[in-house]
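On clarity, I found the account of how folds are encoded harder to follow than it need be. What matters is that the chain and its backbone geometry are given together, residue for residue. For the editor and my fellow referees, an illustration may be useful. For illustration, here is how one protein appears when written out as sequence plus structure tokens:

___
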Amino acid sequence: MRTIKLLFFLVLASVCSVLAAQQYTYQYDDDDADAENTSTSPVVEIQTVEDFSALGRLARAENKVIFLEVSASYCGWCRTLEEHIIRPMIISGDYDEYVLFRKINIDSSYPMKGFDGRATSPAKFAFRFDASLTPTLLFLGPDGQELSERIVGVNTLELYGEYVDIALAKGHAQLVN
């Protein structure tokens, strides 16, 4: 009897964990188009950085904070963060005046340039910033200096947007002062 109870508990725990994981990975397909509460938000891609020296010049000219997501293709939390926090921020337009949203994928090997104009890779760039965990959000100035405290990982989505807003406000205040 005790073995049956233990087996039942293990099966129940497995089912609950699968259901909880599906909450963040559900994708609408064409059959869901008629269902209520489907997402109609436009698809927005977060630009991948290939030249930080050019991005720095743009940030300086427009007096904007560089919001950099350090991501990886295998990072489920990165996708969740992009879907629930970053893309809605971009779509809202509320940040257009003072933020440049960008990302790098540390498991990609595309060539890029750092703030100094030298050739690098996403992994090497992230290593220089000690940003090996994903997701990591960096709030950078035109020269690559961190303007406010980075955010590493995801603790709770309910409060995450507020943490990002605070970091962006601090970063922008550093730029204008």
